[in-house]
Amino acid sequence: MGTCTLLTFVIIIYGPGNADLGVDCNRYYSESCNTVFRARAAVFAELTWLILVSAWEFKNLRRSMFSLDPERSDGSKFPFFKDIYENKFLFYAVAIGAVSVFPAVYIPGLNTQVFKHIGIGWEWALALGSVVLFVAGVEAWKACKRRFGWFAVGGVEEGSERKLGLRQGFISFSRAVSMRKSESDLDRDVVLQAGEKV
């Protein structure tokens, strides 16, 4: 993620920008800061989208983002949209976050005074290309983990011990904590009862 954003900034500044970093660009916008402000806008859009896509990508550290829940795929060859829409809160949070990039980049005053960037053109291609490159890299890493069994817990493929759906989170966490607590309470009660009999 960091490499993608850094490369985008460097390509814009040292490619068409001819290494022009402007004068006092952290304080105010001037014509000399045009390249820096454009590079910042591209990196802002890219990093925002990378973080949002990561929310879907890291729902499972082994399974592909494009097939998160193969048990419930209903025979579909591409269950991506069904899987990401199952968690509606996350879906709308990512969608709203992705769309919010455009007002931040293009609203006058907000972009130059608050975010210290300006509207961009061809730089959108770098931002989108980096997102595609990032997803391809993560998917390749996950494929290697599945294929070669890297980082499998105890040599057992994830998901084979227990079946959990995509709605993991607080409910499954609290259930696991309460189960552990009740097991420890039972152990404590057995020890207390054994102590009373002696």
Give the H and E element order: HHHHHHHH
- N→C terminal distance: 62 Å
Beta-strand residue fraction: under 5%
Mean pLDDT: 80
**Number of distinct beta strands:** 0
Gyration radius, rounded: 24 Å
Number of helices: 8
Which structural category do the helix and sheet elements fall into?
mainly alpha
Determine the fraction of residues in helical runs and give it as a percent range. Answer: 55-70%
Shape field:
elongated
Description:
- It is a single chain.
- The chain has 198 residues and is mainly alpha-helical.
- The chain is built from eight helices and no strands.
- It has helices at residues 2-14, 34-57, 80-86, 88-99, 101-106, 110-114, 123-148, 170-197.
- α1 packs antiparallel against α2, α1 packs antiparallel against α7 (123-148) and α2 runs parallel beside α7 (123-148).
- The protein is elongated, with a radius of gyration of 24 Å.
- The mean pLDDT is 80.
